[in-house]
TrEMBL record:
Belongs to the DegT/DnrJ/EryC1 family. It holds the Pfam family DegT_DnrJ_EryC1. Transmembrane segments: none annotated. CDD domains: AHBA_syn (cd00616). Keywords: Aminotransferase, Pyridoxal phosphate, Transferase. It comes from Flavobacterium sangjuense. This is GDP-perosamine synthase. The modification N6-(pyridoxal phosphate)lysine is found at residue 192. One of its GO terms (molecular function) is pyridoxal phosphate binding. Its EC number is 2.6.1.102. It comes from the Bacteria. One of its GO terms (biological process) is polysaccharide biosynthetic process.
Length: 378
């Protein structure tokens, strides 16, 4: 049996990516614009449905940065952000000189706790500052409690920047993640459910906002024969080469979601008789996850073994696994900013592990994973 590395989530090409890339070369559209960029945007708009407009950008982080600018966030403002996430959700707040206010998770979805969110908003307002935006995250593909979070945002009239970087194809009450916020964000980084080798997108319900996004992402050139600028511009547009990869990936997205969900079923089945291990699952039928990553939480008292022991055991079999995201309020770079909640996310971080979840894992590799897990839990 071959013992090559089993990755957590590696790129999985569908087959037609190189056709679109070759077309770009053949027609000399080797630039951050061209038919693949508009074609990829069109594919994403069709997939997301719900009358959205999509602007393809160089990364999900760029989409969050521009999203905050479009929502009017400026230096000195406060922006609410889910603490249990990847740092890219929060870094753009600092790019703008604004202050992040972190919110803990709730146990059902692992995402932003609506109760802690409302407490935070009330407290920030009582301290004299109303937050400018809310960044909830569909972590690992699991939708956050959209109705509850939206009701609070509406009540206090604060816009939502929906970080759907991990949740392309996930749905809440039948609607696609990435379409719920005032602005939505997608990512096509190398380890995401589809990849353009690096890329992202901003999702909006307004053609005007899309046009403004493209304007800001292409150095904010005013309409003049010479180069004229009256706003700060950015170089954030997606390349036509990368967009070609994206068009190929869109052809297999639905298939890859099903394969990720099958990987999740594989772990549910494996762990069903193992006491002390909980597989992260959808709380009810309103939630449909793309299961970008399959995750477990270990009760080390019950099990007599820790998350870290499991991680090392898998590593010894050349199988990659990774602790859940370390919450932002525990990160050295963010530790001085306000945090609201009961440290639910800290428990997840201490006891949780992401397991290999790729849509490209074959039967041989699944067998190796089963063997390594069986060894550890026997
Ligand atoms: C990947 C990711 C991002 C950033 O996307 P990039 O395309 O890597 O810049 C933002 N938020 C979350 C939750 C992510 O997982």
């Amino acid at each position: 049996m071959n013992n090559s590395k089993i990755w957590l989530s590696s790129p999985h090409m569908g087959g037609n990516e190189q056709k679109y890339v070759k077309e770009a070369f053949d027609t000399n559209w080797v630039a951050p614009l061209g038919p693949n960029v508009s074609g990829f945007e069109h594919d994403l708009e069709n997939f997301q449905n719900d009358d959205v407009f999509v602007a393809a950008l160089s990364s999900g982080t760029a989409a969050i940065h521009l999203g905050l600018i479009l929502l009017g966030v400026q230096a000195g403002d406060e922006v609410i952000c889910q603490s249990f996430t990847f740092s890219a959700s929060a870094n753009p707040i600092l790019y703008l000189g604004a202050t992040p206010v972190f919110i803990d998770s709730e146990i059902d979805t692992w995402n932003m706790c609506p109760i802690a969110l409302e407490q935070a908003i009330a407290d920030r307002i009582s301290k004299g500052k109303k937050p400018k935006a809310i960044i909830p995250v569909h972590l690992y593909g699991m939708p956050f409690k959209v109705d509850e979070i939206k009701a609070i945002a509406l009540k206090y009239e604060i816009p939502i920047l929906e970080d759907s970087a991990e949740a392309l194809g996930s749905t809440y009450k039948g609607k696609k993640c990435g379409t719920f916020g005032d602005i939505g964000v997608l990512s096509f980084n190398g380890n995401k459910i589809i990849t353009t080798s690096g890329g992202g997108a901003l999702v909006t319900h307004s053609k005007k906002v899309k046009d403004k996004t493209v304007f800001l992402a292409t150095q904010a050139r005013d309409n003049a024969p010479h180069y004229q600028h009256s706003e700060i511009g950015y170089n954030y547009r997606l390349s036509n080469i990368c967009a070609g990869i994206g068009r190929g990936q869109m052809e297999v997205l639905e298939k890859h979601i099903n394969l990720r969900r099958e990987m999740h079923d594989f772990y549910v089945d494996f762990f069903k008789d193992i006491e002390g291990v909980t597989v992260f699952q959808e709380p009810n039928a309103d939630f449909y996850s793309n299961f970008w990553l399959s995750c477990i939480v270990i009760d080390s008292d019950k099990l007599g073994k820790t998350r870290e022991e499991l991680r090392l055991a898998l590593e010894a079999s050349n199988i990659e696994s990774r602790p859940l995201w370390k919450p932002m309020h525990l990160q050295p770079i963010f530790s001085d900013y306000p945090f609201y909640g009961k440290k639910v996310s800290e428990q997840f971080f201490e006891n949780g592990l992401c397991l290999p979840s790729g849509s490209n894992l074959n039967e041989d590799e699944k067998g190796r994973i089963t063997n390594a897990l069986s060894q550890f839990f026997k």
